[in-house]
Write a structure and sequence with these properties.
By secondary structure, this protein is of the alpha/beta class. It has 26 helices and 19 strands. A seven-stranded mixed β-sheet has the order 9-8-10-11-13-12-17, with helices on both faces. A five-stranded parallel β-sheet has the order 2-3-4-6-5, sandwiched between helices. The chain has a five-stranded mixed β-sheet with strand order 14-16-15-18-19, sandwiched between helices. Helix 22 links the parallel strand 15 (498-502) and strand 16. It is globular and about 85 Å long. The N and C termini lie far apart (67 Å).
Length: 616
C-alpha cells in the first residue's frame, strides 16, 4: 500500500514519521506526472515544490492557518494533500478541479490567485484582520516562479515591513533569484538562526548598545551588515523583514525544522528556499520552460503532443522577425512569457533588441512608451488577461501621449483549461474606451501578418488581439505582408436577408453559419469588421440599405465590447441587432470547444438567432 493512499488531509499527513515523507514526496511526483501527461497543465513548477508543500502542511494547521499561494499554478501537491486527491485526475477538465487555488472549491484555499505577485499583500490583509479580531492563526505566503519580479510584491513587502505584523513569506526561488549559496553549511546556519539562540544574542547585543547614546545606532547597522554578509537578504532586512536563507528546498527534515522554529517568531519573516524546477522528472529538469505549461505528453520519452498546424503565435513570431530584419528600430518586449508569445525566436535572432522584463506588465508598457518617445518602434507582446494589470499605464503613458507602441495580445478570448484567471475575454471592452488606440483583431493567421505590418507603419498606438486557438479553416499565407487601410472592414459574402458581423476568430463562425443558412434559402451578408476602433461605420450603414437585421459575434464579454458598439451605432436606425458574446460572469475552465458550445459561440447558435429574427 502506498503512503499516498493513507493521506486524505493534512491531519493524516501529520501521522506519518518524518523519515517516510521523502517516500511520500516521490509518490506525489508520480501522481502529478501521470495525471498531467493526460490532462496537460503546469508540470515543472509543481514538481519543484513538492517537499516544500509537504513541510508546510506538516508544520502548520491548514485550514485554520492560512496558506496563500503565488503563483497559483504551483498548488497541485497542495490540492492532493487537502481532500482533493480523489478528484485530482479531473484537474483542469470541465467540471473538475481548477488548476489554481479557488476559494469556492476548498476551505483549504484561503485566497484565489492565478498570476501573480499578490500573496504578500494578501498575507498582510489576513494578518491585520486576524489581529483586529484577536484571533491566533498563522499566515504563510508562498511566492515563487518569478512572482517576486512583480511590483505588487514589493509594495506588499514595504507595507508589511512597516506594520510589523506576524507573517511568514516563503520565497520559492527556482531560478536562483538572489543567491547561489546553497549547501549543507548554509542550511545549518539557517537552522541556527531560527533556533532562537542567535536571535536572542542579536537582540541582547542591540539592547545593550542602545544604552550608549551616539554609538548605538552605528553598531546596530554594523550588526545588520555582518548578518547580511553571511545570509544574503539585505533588501528584505532593510524593508523590515527578518531574512532567513537560502535553504535547500528538497530536504524535508531541514525544512520542517526551520518552519517549526519560525512558527512562533514575531514580526514579518522571509524564508528563502532554493528549489529545482522539474525536480524528479529528468525531461522537466532539463527543459523547465518547455515543461512549464505543457500539453499532453508521453512519460517515458518526454515527447509532448504537438499541434504543428500554423497558428497565430508562430505567425506573429515569424512576421515580426522578418519585419525587424528590415527595420533596426523594432524592439520586442514581453513580461515573462517569451515562449508563450513566440518571442523566444526573436530573442535568438536579435538578443540586443529583445527585453523580458519579468512579471511586470505595467513596467513593460511604460518602458515601451519611453522607447517609442525616443524614436524606437516597440512591440509589447503580453497575454490579454495579464495586460489588464497595465490599463493605467496604457492610458497615461501611451494613449494620452499618442505614442506609437504596438500591443500584441496573445491568448485573447477563451483559453480553455486555465479558466477564469486566464481567459482573455475583457480586452475589447477595457481598451474600447481609451482614446487614440487603434484596436484590430485578425480573422486568421494571414490577416495577422498584415495587421502587424500595418501597426508598425502607423503613428498611433495600436492593439492586435488574437486567440490561443488558430483558425479551423485552411489558411494560406501571403508571401509578403501588406499595409491595411485603418478602420476598414471587408464584405466576405453578400446577402439580402440578414447581416452577420464578426470580429477576430469569430469571422469563420459567421462564414460557416452563412453557408448553412444558404441551405435554408436564407442569404446572409458576412462582414469581417477587422477593427473595433476606428469602427467602419460606412460599411455597416451601406448594409442598412439592404437589411435591418444584424447579428454580431465576438469572443469577448458582451458588455462594452464589439456588439454593443455596433448597437450604439445603429440605435436610431430602426435596425434589430442581436449580440452574441460572453455573459457578465467569470467563465469557468474547460476545453475551448466545450465553452464555445455552452455560451453560444457557434454557427448553430447564429442560425438559431437568425431564424428567430427573421420570423419576427
Amino acid at each position: 500500500m502506498k503512503l499516498l493512499d493513507k493521506i486524505n488531509n493534512p491531519e493524516d499527513l501529520k501521522k506519518l514519521e518524518k523519515k517516510s515523507l521523502s517516500t511520500l514526496a516521490e509518490e506525489i511526483r508520480e501522481e502529478i506526472i501521470s495525471v498531467i501527461s493526460k490532462n496537460g497543465g503546469h508540470l515543472a513548477s509543481n514538481l519543484g515544490v513538492v517537499e516544500l508543500t509537504i513541510s508546510i502542511h506538516y508544520v502548520f494547521n491548514s485550514p485554520f492557518d492560512k496558506i496563500i499561494w503565488d503563483v497559483g499554478h504551483q498548488t497541485y501537491t497542495h490540492k492532493i494533500l487537502t481532500e482533493r486527491k480523489i478528484n485530482f485526475n479531473t484537474i483542469r477538465m470541465y467540471g473538475g478541479l481548477s488548476g489554481f487555488p479557488k476559494r469556492s472549491e476548498s476551505k483549504y484555499d484561503a485566497f484565489g490567485t492565478g498570476h501573480s505577485s499578490t500573496s504578500i499583500s494578501v498575507a498582510l490583509g489576513f494578518a491585520v484582520a486576524r489581529d483586529f479580531n484577536r484571533e491566533s492563526y498563522k499566515i504563510i505566503a508562498v511566492i515563487g516562479d518569478g512572482s517576486m519580479t512583480g511590483g505588487l510584491a514589493f509594495e506588499g513587502l514595504q507595507n508589511a515591513g512597516h506594520l510589523k505584523k506576524d507573517m511568514l513569506v516563503v520565497l520559492n526561488d527556482n531560478e536562483m533569484f538572489i543567491s547561489k549559496k546553497i549547501g549543507a553549511i548554509v542550511g545549518y546556519l539557517a537552522k541556527l538562526l531560527t533556533a532562537g539562540m542567535a536571535r536572542k544574542f542579536e537582540d541582547k547585543v542591540i539592547k545593550t548598545i542602545s544604552r550608549f547614546h551616539g554609538f548605538g545606532l552605528p553598531f546596530k547597522k554594523i550588526i545588520k551588515r555582518v548578518k547580511v554578509m553571511l545570509f544574503p537578504g539585505m533588501l528584505f532586512e532593510e524593508m523590515g523583514f527578518t531574512y532567513i536563507g537560502p535553504v535547500q528546498g528538497h530536504n524535508i527534515n531541514t525544512l520542517i525544522t526551520i518552519l517549526e522554529n519560525l512558527k512562533n517568531m514575531n514580526g514579518p519573516v522571509l524564508l528563502h528556499v532554493i528549489t529545482k524546477k522539474g525536480k524528479g522528472y529528468a525531461f522537466a529538469e532539463d527543459h523547465p520552460v518547455k515543461f512549464h505549461g505543457v500539453g499532453k505528453f508521453d512519460i517515458k520519452s518526454g515527447k509532448i503532443t504537438q499541434n504543428n498546424k500554423v497558428n497565430f503565435t508562430n505567425v506573429f513570431s515569424d512576421t515580426l522577425i522578418n519585419l525587424a530584419q528590415k527595420d533596426p528600430k523594432i524592439i520586442a518586449i514581453t513580461a515573462a512569457m517569451a515562449k508563450g508569445t513566440g518571442l523566444d525566436k526573436f530573442a535568438e535572432k536579435f538578443p540586443n533588441r529583445y527585453f523580458d522584463v519579468g512579471i511586470a506588465e505595467e513596467h513593460a508598457v511604460t518602458f515601451a512608451a519611453a522607447l517609442s518617445a525616443a524614436g524606437m518602434r516597440p512591440v509589447c507582446a503580453i497575454y490579454s488577461t495579464f495586460m489588464q494589470r497595465a490599463i493605467d499605464s496604457i492610458i497615461h503613458d501611451v494613449a494620452l501621449q499618442n505614442l506609437p507602441v504596438v500591443f500584441v495580445l496573445d491568448r485573447a478570448g477563451l483559453v480553455g483549461e486555465d479558466g477564469g484567471t486566464h481567459h482573455g475575454v475583457f480586452d475589447l471592452s477595457y481598451l474600447n474606451y481609451i482614446p487614440n488606440l487603434v484596436i484590430m483583431a485578425p480573422a486568421n493567421e494571414n490577416e495577422l501578418q498584415h495587421m502587424l505590418k500595418t501597426a508598425l507603419n502607423y503613428d498611433n498606438p495600436c492593439v492586435i488581439r488574437y486567440s490561443k486557438k488558430g483558425s479551423d479553416l485552411e489558411v494560406s499565407l501571403d508571401k509578403f505582408p501588406s499595409i491595411l487601410q485603418i478602420g476598414k472592414g471587408i464584405v466576405l459574402k453578400k446577402g439580402n436577408d440578414i447581416c452577420l458581423l464578426g470580429i477576430g476568430n469569430q469571422v469563420e463562425t459567421c462564414i460557416k453559419a452563412a453557408e448553412l443558412l444558404a441551405k435554408k434559402n436564407i442569404s446572409a451578408t458576412v462582414v469581417n469588421m477587422r477593427f473595433l476602433k476606428p469602427l467602419d461605420s460606412d460599411i455597416v450603414k451601406e448594409i442598412l440599405l439592404k437589411t435591418k437585421k444584424f447579428i454580431t459575434i465576438e469572443e469577448n464579454c458582451i458588455i462594452g465590447g464589439f456588439g454593443e458598439t455596433i448597437k450604439a451605432l445603429l440605435c436610431s436606425s430602426g435596425a434589430v441587432v442581436e449580440c452574441i458574446g460572453l455573459p457578465d460572469k467569470f467563465v469557468e475552465h474547460g476545453s475551448i470547444n466545450i465553452l464555445r458550445e455552452k455560451y453560444g459561440l457557434t454557427s448553430e447558435n447564429i442560425i438559431k438567432k437568425s431564424l428567430e429574427i427573421l420570423k419576427n
